[in-house]
């Protein structure tokens, strides 16, 4: 049952002192609060017996004093236990983020972003509720019961037994009601997702609905679903609406018992009126901890369920990681980029995306990779970046196996411009200097010039300090792509990989950028994934992929002359370009 | 969890009187029940005051007189009060919640109906997720307001008044002494609520910031890792994470201080009752019973004050959602329905005719998608629209069914301007098959019928038969009752097409606009689809956005669209001979473009 707690044990351990102090504060505060009825009892008894009012002021001050002292401890109870839970929450989130930073592409492919964010927010919050409020309430219930029950037994054993016996019913009843309510709640959630799905479907199919004029029919269907949802909600309400009235009835019944048995005791002269009143107060103090018991159980259940979901991330091992230290090799300053008989399939799909790919790119070469959609071009880019694991002996830089190089060293040798131009919502400057190389204004303008970005940026409201994305201005597709190119150029890596990086940049600008790069790069390697004929023509060599195989390679002119698979593909691309110009 | 994490959305809106009036309008149909609920709340307040009262009378009566049998009636009365409380509170809660649920039901219906009436531009601009959030989550967040916020205010006020009245009645002087503390309690509560509200806002802002950070960095993880920025990113996360922790720790202090203060105020009032009240009991000015009742009333004082302070939060939190909901409800569809609409062709000789006359269309500003498009399709004619992606073919299809408004020129169907038609009747005349066939989850039969209960089973079956769907469906078992998953899952591409065809045949429009699917199918399916097409085209005017040469060949005439303009018109042979755009499009389509391939590439690339 407690196996799931393993994950947070170290965190609890870290803040153990807070929790221990919290327990003592809870104990002290409750013990003091439970003294009040005794003071009241003696005051009443004194009035009843002697009619002496002289002591009443002291009794009153005593009550205030006890409560004030109890309040100080109650302050410390929150200040320690809830405090610790907030710290645990923060540490747990930091730990989760750190772990996720080490995970490879396969994790992100199969885990939707929304899912990860939910775990980092709601699931961690559930865990916090378990280690914070639930623990605090648990201690509270324990201490109150442990102090109040013996006191009542000492005051009057028979009366205490008679009225305490039904009390556990309260915990059981709360729990039962809670369970029924939970089931109905699940049914509602279920119907709610159905309702959402049905709206979603209508919206996605709105065209068909409109063109076939079925608005009225959809309206009727929705009304039916909506009414079902309403009915299920009322089912839950019929249970949940009883919750507070039920609690009122039970706590009232305990008062009834005090009134009946206690009243008889008073009449028979067995107990004083003071004891009778003290009992009433004690019952009032015991009711909430009993109710809280059901609540604590459900917090614990939800907390462990959330821990399980968090453990699923924490237990995901990184598939791409640094080699063990004895295997670590360093990369030479320059060297050829190679793939040898590389075969690859994404986890879980089983479909071979790359099949026996071999190539060697010498320093100073510009090589293009071309092929139809789905032929595996972007996968090569992903592997070069080591987003996914490759087998030993399949990928090399300067003759060193990629798997023998630390990730950070490998990646400093490689600058990537990905297909999706992703920018952070930060300034253009921050995005370009993302690789960590400090850029002074001159260098920034230089990089901007290479990427043909400067002219656009001068028109932004704050130049390079303009924030882009959600909180700032929206860049056009071409501007985004050129910014990502600038980002890659700002790093000093000797291999530049452009994955269809200029699809939204017009042909002429692309031409400008590439010709600048070639003169700049000299001995560096450029890998271009593209389908533009002009770009392909300027490459030293083209690797043509089809269905994950290297179907053809050579220069554009060579392969066109050969009338092979590349020539077929290029002809169609050329016609598309021609059409675009017409 | 497709919630938006934008910072501004996380912040509450200020209370707005007009929004609240409009919201309360949704309770209007149920005002009878609202009144009933308020009466029950009044009854409940009386019963809650009755409990301690009965107990006081029992103490002062039989217990003081040592009369064991005299106790029984009071016990019975106390039990009756308890049961009454239970019943009234239960009934009141159910009625109040029912009102709230009903109001939300109505609101959802209204939103759904409103959204269905919007034009296609609305759906282009508003992602499905956003609209969905309005109808579901935003409405649900009004629950608290509808179900407890509005009506139970009365309950809190009644209880408060009741307790004050009972205390004043029991002992005027002691009551006044006890009330001395009341302002203190109110002030403390207001200060606390104010502090907590501010700190809660700050926390919400920081949570939104942290979530946005996660959202962004999970999406851009490849960039973070690829540029070796893990350490810096971790540090930036830690900064946000710790800011949130600091704010959270700060808010703990408010609670840690406030609760003991409330208890202390309670203790002081208890002390006052003991000291002053005890003295009065000794003096004989007050009874023991009254004293115990006082103790109990004083304990119940705080709950309604706290609840009333809570109400403002509930009202405020409903503001943001209701503003978004009303904004959607106030959005008018871009296509206006003319006051005087036409329902039948004025000139029967033009029935089934479609004419474009110098039509210009832009979805945004001056970004023209169709430029000066003119053509005429005679009744019964089949015309193929051909062009590269983005040429404007689909836009033409959209305009005939009047899914969008255009800017210049005119379009007539049956010789009548589409803007003069009742759009619903027009769409009965003009059938459409979209490029990506959309199937609803359900059965094949339901997908052909699409909820039209007036359509006979024979019509559905005949439509399926005519396009050859029955044969295919039977192969998959269950015939027309075959289940279709979400988005048509479980059906092949060809079958989905056939279902879309059958829909048209069942509706039997005079004009058909077919936006052909681009996905490739095997030869056998292709043959079946072409056979179905012939059947589909029979007896109507057909405008086909064609992607397959075989379909183009069915056409009497081909219109070539390029970059929003009509560039070429004619038959296949005529257009091939022109060696223009159609020629190249044809080259792209045909697999037999091999001879002179290298030459083509060279020529084009130059």
Which labels suit this protein?
heterodimer, A: 582 residues, alpha/beta, 6-stranded mixed β-sheet, 4-stranded antiparallel β-sheet, elongated, B: 24 helices, 64% helix
Task: Describe the 3D structure.
The complex is a heterodimer of chains A (582) and B (606). By secondary structure, chain A is of the alpha/beta class. Chain A is built from 22 helices and ten strands. Chain A has helices at residues 9-14, 16-33, 36-50, 56-101, 105-110, 113-155, 157-164, 167-204, 206-211, 215-240, 243-268, 273-314, 377-384, 407-412, 428-432, 441-450, 454-458, 477-490, 507-521, 533-538, 556-562, 565-581; strands spanning 337-344, 354-361, 366-370, 395-397, 400-401, 414-417, 495-499, 525-529, 541-546, 549-554. In chain A, the strands form two sheets. Chain A has a six-stranded mixed β-sheet with strand order 6-7-8-3-9-10, with helices on both faces. Chain A has a four-stranded antiparallel β-sheet with strand order 2-1-4-5, with helices on one face. In chain A, helix 3 (36-50) packs antiparallel against helix 12 (273-314) and helix 4 packs antiparallel against helix 6. The longest helix of chain A has 46 residues, at 56-101. Chain A starts with 8 loop residues before the first helix and ends with a helix. Chain B is an alpha/beta fold. Chain B is 64% helix and 10% strand. Chain B has helices spanning 7-10, 17-24, 31-65, 68-116, 120-125, 128-140, 143-170, 172-179, 182-219, 221-226, 230-283, 288-300, 302-330, 393-400, 423-429, 444-449, 457-466, 469-475, 493-507, 523-537, 549-554, 572-578, 581-589, 597-605; strands at 354-362, 368-377, 382-386, 408-413, 416-417, 430-433, 442-443, 483-484, 511-515, 541-545, 557-562, 565-570. A six-stranded mixed β-sheet of chain B has the order 6-9-10-3-11-12, with helices on both faces. In chain B, strands 2-1-4-5 form a four-stranded antiparallel β-sheet, covered by helices on one side. The longest helix of chain B is centred in the middle third of the chain and has 54 residues, at 230-283.
């Amino acid at each position: 049952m407690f196996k799931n707690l393993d994950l947070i044990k170290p965190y609890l351990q870290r803040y153990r002192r807070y929790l221990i102090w919290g327990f003592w504060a809870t104990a002290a505060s409750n013990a003091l609060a439970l003294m009040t009825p005794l003071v009241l009892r003696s005051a009443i008894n004194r009035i009843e017996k002697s009619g002496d009012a002289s002591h009443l002021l002291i009794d009153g001050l005593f009550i205030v004093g006890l409560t004030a002292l109890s309040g100080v401890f109650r302050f410390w109870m929150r200040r320690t236990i809830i405090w610790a839970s907030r710290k645990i929450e923060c540490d747990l989130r930091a730990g989760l983020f750190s772990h996720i930073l080490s995970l490879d592409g396969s994790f992100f492919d199969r885990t939707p972003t929304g899912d990860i964010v939910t775990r980092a927010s709601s699931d961690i919050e559930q865990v916090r509720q378990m280690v914070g409020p639930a623990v605090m309430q648990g201690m509270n219930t324990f201490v109150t019961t442990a102090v109040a029950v013996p006191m009542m037994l000492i005051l009057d054993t028979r009366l205490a037994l008679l009225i305490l016996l039904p009390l556990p019913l309260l915990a059981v009843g709360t729990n039962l009601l809670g369970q029924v309510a939970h089931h109905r709640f699940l049914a509602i959630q279920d119907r709610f997702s159905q309702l959402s799905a049905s709206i979603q479907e209508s919206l996605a199919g709105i065209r068909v609905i409109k063109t076939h004029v079925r608005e009225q029919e959809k309206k009727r269907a929705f009304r039916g679903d909506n009414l079902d949802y309403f009915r299920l909600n009322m089912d839950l309400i019929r249970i949940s609406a009883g919750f507070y009235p039920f609690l009122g009835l039970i706590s009232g019944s305990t008062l009834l018992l005090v009134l009946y048995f206690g009243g008889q005791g008073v009449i028979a002269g067995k107990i004083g009126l003071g004891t009778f009143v003290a009992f009433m107060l004690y019952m009032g103090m015991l009711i909430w901890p009993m109710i809280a018991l059901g609540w604590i159980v459900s917090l614990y259940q939800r907390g462990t369920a959330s821990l399980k979901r968090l453990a699923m991330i924490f237990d995901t091992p990184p598939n791409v990681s640094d080699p063990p230290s004895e295997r670590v090799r360093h990369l030479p300053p320059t060297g050829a980029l190679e793939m040898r008989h590389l075969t690859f399939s994404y986890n879980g799909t089983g479909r071979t995306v790359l099949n026996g790919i071999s190539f060697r790119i010498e320093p100073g070469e510009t090589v293009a990779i071309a092929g139809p959609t789905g032929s595996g071009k972007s996968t090569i880019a992903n592997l070069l970046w080591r987003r996914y694991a490759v087998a030993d002996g399949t990928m090399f830089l300067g003759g060193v196996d990629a798997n023998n190089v630390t990730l950070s060293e490998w990646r400093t040798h490689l600058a990537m411009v990905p297909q999706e131009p992703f920018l952070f919502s930060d300034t253009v400057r921050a995005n370009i200097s993302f690789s960590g190389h400090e850029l002074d204004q001159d260098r920034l303008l230089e990089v901007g010039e290479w990427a043909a970005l400067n002219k656009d940026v001068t028109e932004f409201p704050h130049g390079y300090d303009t924030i882009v994305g959600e909180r700032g201005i929206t860049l056009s597709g071409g501007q985004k792509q050129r910014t990502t190119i600038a980002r890659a150029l700002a790093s000093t890596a000797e291999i530049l990989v452009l994955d269809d990086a200029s699809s939204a940049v017009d042909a002429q600008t692309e031409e400008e950028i590439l010709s600048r790069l070639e003169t700049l790069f000299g001995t560096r390697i450029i890998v271009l994934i593209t389908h533009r004929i002009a770009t392909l023509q300027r490459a030293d060599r083209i690797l043509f992929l089809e269905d994950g195989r290297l179907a053809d390679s050579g220069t554009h002119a060579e392969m066109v002359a050969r009338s092979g698979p590349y020539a077929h593909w290029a002809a169609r691309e050329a016609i598309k370009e021609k059409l675009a110009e017409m | 969890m497709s919630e938006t994490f934008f910072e501004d959305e996380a912040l509450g809106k200020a209370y707005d009187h007009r929004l609240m009036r409009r919201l309360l309008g949704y309770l209007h149909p149920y005002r009878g029940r609202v009144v009933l609920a308020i009466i029950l709340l009044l009854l409940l307040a009386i019963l809650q005051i009755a409990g301690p009262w009965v107990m006081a009378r029992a103490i002062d009566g039989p217990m003081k007189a040592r009369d064991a049998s005299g106790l029984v009636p009071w016990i019975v009365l106390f039990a009756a009060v308890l049961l009454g409380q239970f019943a009234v509170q239960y009934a009141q809660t159910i009625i109040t919640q029912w009102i709230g649920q009903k109001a939300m039901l109505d609101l959802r219906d209204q939103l759904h109906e409103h959204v269905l009436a919007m034009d296609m531009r609305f759906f282009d601009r508003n992602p499905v997720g956003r609209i969905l959030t309005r109808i579901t989550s935003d409405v649900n967040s009004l629950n608290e307001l509808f179900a407890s916020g509005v009506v139970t205010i009365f309950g809190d006020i009644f209880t408060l008044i009741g307790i004050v009245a009972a205390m004043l009645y029991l002992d005027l002087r002691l009551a006044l002494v006890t009330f001395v503390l009341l302002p203190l309690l109110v002030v403390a509560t207001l200060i606390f609520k104010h502090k907590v509200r501010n700190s809660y806002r700050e926390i919400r802002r920081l949570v939104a910031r942290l979530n946005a950070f996660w959202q962004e960095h999970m999406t851009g993880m490849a960039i973070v890792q690829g540029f070796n920025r893990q350490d810096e990113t971790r540090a930036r996360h830690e900064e946000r994470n710790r800011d949130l922790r600091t704010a959270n720790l700060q808010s703990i202090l408010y609670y840690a201080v406030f609760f003991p203060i409330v208890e202390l105020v309670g203790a002081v009032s208890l002390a006052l009752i003991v000291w002053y009240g005890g003295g009065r009991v000794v003096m004989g000015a007050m009874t023991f019973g009254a004293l115990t009742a006082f103790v109990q009333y004083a304990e119940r004082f705080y709950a309604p004050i706290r609840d009333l302070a809570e109400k403002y939060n509930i009202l405020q939190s409903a503001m943001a959602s209701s503003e978004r909901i009303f904004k959607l409800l106030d959005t008018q569809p871009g296509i206006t329905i003319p006051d005087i609409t036409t329902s039948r062709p004025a000139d029967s000789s033009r029935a089934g005719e479609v004419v474009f006359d110098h039509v210009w269309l832009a979805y945004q500003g001056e970004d023209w998608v169709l430029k000066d498009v003119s053509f005429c399709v005679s009744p019964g004619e089949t015309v193929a629209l051909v062009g590269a992606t983005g040429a404007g073919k689909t836009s033409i299809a959209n305009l005939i069914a009047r899914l969008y408004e255009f800017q210049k020129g005119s379009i007539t169907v049956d010789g009548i301007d589409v803007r003069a038609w009742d759009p619903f009747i027009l769409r009965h005349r003009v059938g459409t098959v979209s490029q990506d066939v959309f199937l609803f989850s359900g059965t094949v039969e339901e997908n052909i019928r699409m909820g039209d209960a007036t359509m006979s089973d024979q019509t559905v079956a005949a439509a399926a038969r005519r396009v050859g769907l029955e044969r295919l469906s039977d192969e998959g078992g269950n015939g027309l009752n075959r289940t279709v998953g979400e988005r048509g899952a479980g059906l092949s591409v060809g079958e989905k097409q056939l279902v879309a065809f059958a829909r048209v045949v069942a509706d039997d429009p005079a004009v058909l606009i077919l936006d052909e699917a681009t996905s490739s199918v095997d030869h056998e399916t292709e043959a079946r689809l072409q056979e179905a097409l012939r059947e589909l085209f029979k007896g109507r005017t057909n405008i086909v956005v064609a992607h397959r040469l075989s379909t183009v060949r069915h056409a009497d005439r081909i219109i070539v669209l390029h970059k929003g303009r009509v560039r070429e018109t004619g038959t296949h042979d005529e257009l091939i001979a022109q060696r223009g755009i159609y020629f190249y499009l044809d080259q792209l389509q045909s697999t037999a473009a091999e001879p002179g391939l290298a030459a083509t590439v060279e020529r084009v690339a130059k």
